Amino acid sequence: MTDEAATAALFKVYEIIAHWINLKGNYKRLRQEGKKLKAIRDAIEAEITKDKITPATREWIAKAKMIESEVKDLKTKYKNEVGHPWRLVRIWAYPILGLEMKEKYSQVHRLWEEGNLKREELDAELPEPVRKRHAAKIEENSSLHMAVQDLLSFLEDEQIRRVGVWGTVGTGKTTIMQNLNNHEQVAKMFDIVIWVTVSKEWNVEKLQEAIMRRLKLDMECFGDIEENARRISEELKEKKYLLLLDEVQDFIDLNAVMEIHNNIDSRVVLASRSRCVCYDMEADELINLKRLSPADAWNMFQEKVGHPISSPLIKPIAEQVVKECDGLPLLIDRIGRAFRKKGKDASLWRDGLNRLRRWDRVKTEGMDEVLDFLKFCYDDLDGNKRDCFLYGALYPEECEIYIDYLLECWNAEGFIHDADELVDDTNAFRDARDKGHAILDALIDVSLLERSDKKKCVKMNKVLRKMALKISSESNGSKFLVKPCQGLQDFPDKKEWEDASRISLMDNQLCSLPEFLQCHHLSTLLLQRNNGLIAIPELFFDSMRNLRVLDLHGTGIESLPSSISNLISLKGMYLNSCTCLIQLPPNIRELVQLEVLDIRGTKLNLLQIGSLKWLKCLRISLSSFFRGIRTQRQFGSISTFVSLEEFCVDDDLSEQYWDEVLKIVMEEVVTLKKLTSLRFCFPTVDFLKLFVQRSPVWKNSFFTFQFCVGHQDNTYSQILESSDYPSYNSLKLVNGEGMHPVIAEVLKVTHAFKLVNHKGVSNLSDFGTNNMENMLVCSVEGGNEIRTIVCGDRMTNSVFKNLEVLHINNVSRLRSVCQGRIPHGSLAQLISLTLTKCPELKKIFSDGMIQQLPELQNLKVEECHQIEEIITESENLELEANALPRLKSLILIDLPKLRSIWVDDSLEWPSLQRVHISECHMLKRLPFNDVNAAKLRYVEGQQSWWEALEWEDDAFRESLQSILHFQIAQPQVCM
């Protein structure tokens, strides 16, 4: 072999080795690039659905899949070559395979670069997890802040899928929702948050469109409702989402909108003016946003106004401005912005305050927008509901209006249409009252009226009242003259009242009335509680033929003028508490439309109203049956009131006159055939037996009653007045003894039961547990023979399974609430338990009783000096951690021996919000921590007690400082 040939051969060998090395490198690079391509293809396919894929992206994915297959083939080919490296026939193929790999690498790299760009484009097209919204700042520990915290807690609860936030316009619902949307905790909980503001003209398609745009679905493929719902559901099926629906006004079928039932891990929070809408939307929990507390309102106003409010010249005026805003966040916000512009000029602030107080009559900056919102709520009402709402403005600001009285006025005015067509004419008055309750509930549902702390009353907030007065002033047919509580001594001028349809001058200092009041359109005249008014001019009522409601109660009048006979349309007349009223004119019989008459607390007698046989509702004092009458034969006859549906007799007699009067009265009452409601006090059980046996209405399932058996001052106690429902049947036994069969019969249909100083029973079970299945409220007061409330011995069936409220007060020998283990299901609906002044009570939750109370929300124990443990450890050894899942309020007062609520922090307190502890100096530890009591919002106690508490977690102690409220020590009274 020549040198040239040897050199060429050697070079060929080097070339083969080089190709081998390049082949190995090309394979490695190709494999790595192929992995990158597959990764980005997988990412792109994971981020998009077939509903959102574009033709270009679809083509790129197809190319990527094809080239991935080609890379796989090259990998196989490479492994075959490498597996036989010294086959000479294959060695010559290395250069070709290496070049193929090199070219394929270039193709894969270019496709990867295209994919990388496409990935960036897709990231821009994908919906962001949370779209931040502009939200007003919420003060720490304010009521709005607490509402957001409550919502967060609900969102963490696996059992809660939907939450409703409701309240009137301007209470901060949207602010709450916006802050929830932006909360960092929400971003961690959910893959995506979807916000939709539901317009008044919403429909399923509009809602679907809003959601699809939020999800950035292809709107060119917008189809029918079912197809859209499928696309939304498909897009969200792998995601945990939060749907926030603001301003919901009607029921929305979310299954039709987005097949929401397919995703059990997601949540819905809706905000609405209506509580009913929240119920219709199947909300598991409700948050009622009410007006801000005075402190919260002031803090919010300070933030809006800024530095000027710190001036000593401005602050007193600013405090009055905040009062005018009545705790409505929306109004505080708008008014705060307007007053910020006034700087530190006190004259401008005073002018602004005066205008604000008269905003229903003068234009005021900041009010127009709020008024538009409020007017929207009013315009959304049906016609009769509008009239009922406006009528509430006749009463003073924040006045508590008795519901029964208000419904009677509505009915008298004709606002409750076609009431007598609801069933038949037999009980038209009751049917009207029932329909009135439905209207009232509707107004409460949209927060135009609100229930007061007295459950049988409602009230209207200041701002809504001003809006109602403004609306009435602009109405052609409903002019109001409203000046209550203004210290008026003289009747207003003629120009103010001559066109009025309703006049309210209650709670003034009127001493006289005009000789003649020419008000042909007047339908309501409210003059109550003008104590100095002692006479009504003889012709005063001459032109009031359309008057329907006349309220003179609490005035000093001694008689009514003969012109009262002109009130031929009058339906409701209230003369109660007119303590000097002794005479009615004979022509009172001309009031043929009169349905409601209240003469309690007057000096009138039954004979004077005997001609009004068509009355539907009569309220009278027991003394009126014989006042001024010398013989029993001269008693007026109740039996002549053949249309009477509601009869109330207040006891104002001493015990010595009872028997002689009540026997005659009862003989008359049992003849009334149309009674639907009776409030009466029976001196003995025998009188009650007489009524039950002889009254034709007793067996009527719609008949309601408030009975007292036995004599005691202040007969109708607070338990009857605090009932949530006006249809509660109430029975009170006072100073009685043992168990009478008629009591058992009445108990079977009783909802509220009070036992006072009763003898001959050792527990409520002695009345027969089967007789108390319908009982909702129970109160036991006084007596020294009761040892326990429920005796579980030998019981097999659940007891008190519908009881919601249990009050025990001043029961001197009470040892326990329950004795023995009570059957499962007993006390299962108990919401509130109060124990007061029971000196021998040692056990509350004994014998596993606590496991029976899943609904308990309020627990109060006061002046029970032997109590050492709230939950007795020795009798609750197998206690589940979530024993009191709904307890919200815990109040412990004057328990000198109390050492423990529970032995440690092993229990969960998932709903606990308020703890009040006073005069419990031996209680050194609290069973709470930042995990088991996450909803705790308010802690009240004495500073000395708080400082003596022992803590395992100092950080938790510090966290409670912001919600801690110290009691102000009461000064000692020196006798």
How would you characterize the overall build of this protein?
The chain has 975 residues and is an alpha/beta fold. It is built from 27 helices and 30 strands. It has a 20-stranded parallel beta sheet. The protein has a five-stranded parallel beta sheet with strand order 2-3-4-1-5, sandwiched between helices. Strand 9 (480-482), helix 21 and strand 10 (502-504) form a beta-alpha-beta unit. Helix 5 packs across helix 6 (173-182), helix 12 packs across helix 13 (315-325) and helix 12 (294-305) runs parallel beside helix 14 (329-340). Residues 715-724 and 970-975 have low confidence and may be disordered.
Task: Characterize this entry briefly.
The chain has 975 residues and is an alpha/beta fold.
Question: Rounded to an integer, what's the Rg over CA atoms?
Answer: 39 Å
> Roughly what percent helix?
25-40%
Largest sheet: 20 strands, parallel
**N/C terminus separation:** 138 Å
Low-confidence stretches: 715-724, 970-975
- Total beta-strand segments: 30
Q: What integer is the average pLDDT?
A: 84
Structural class by SSE content: alpha/beta
CA-based shape: globular
Supply the key terms.
alpha/beta, single chain, 975 residues, 20-stranded parallel β-sheet, globular
